[in-house]
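Worked example 2:
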Amino acid sequence: MNQTFLRLPFVIVILLSLPALAWAAGVAAPVQKSGQTGCWNAAGDVIACANTGQDGDLLKGVAWPNPRFTKNNDATVTDNLTGLIWLENANCFGTRTWAQALTDAATVKNGICGLSDGSALGEWRLPSKKELESLVASQYFNPAVPNTAGTGQWTAGAPFTIVQSSWYWSSTTYAGGTTNAWNVYLYYGGVYTNNKTSTSYVWPVRGGQ
């Protein structure tokens, strides 16, 4: 009998056990920090964070690098936390339907939206829901986006330009109603669904896995 088949059950058991082994070993889940460092009571008053159990007290998640972003001087910005490369201009296309947003993002290349990065057609795309959410800093609103260092709120040119405190399309369809797709509301970082015929802003990205 081929000895390979005798080893298969053992290999399968080991593979199935890996998640449990990682949990038992206390391996941290690779979820980024939310960016919130303050704490508030139920009435909305600022309070000391110690021993509250709030996000701003526990500060769980993968720490942000400093600087959080690097301006590449070619109309792109690299997120040093995720490795994603974002268009520096967060409003190159205005508001578009979901189908238009997908097309717009796919047409981005060197020479479009001020790019001088040498990128070719097909390298840029509309971000997924998770990728778009990764830009949110929950300590801030209007917009809920961090600055270049990741230590404060975004301001014009630091590192992005023309960020809108409004709805941005993701490429992710809402499974509970496939005529809708997920948006991220960058005024305060909320995530919602919207009909694909509605209009939202477009923020192309490239890279990632």
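Residues 3-24 form the longest helix (22 residues). Residues 1-63 form one domain.
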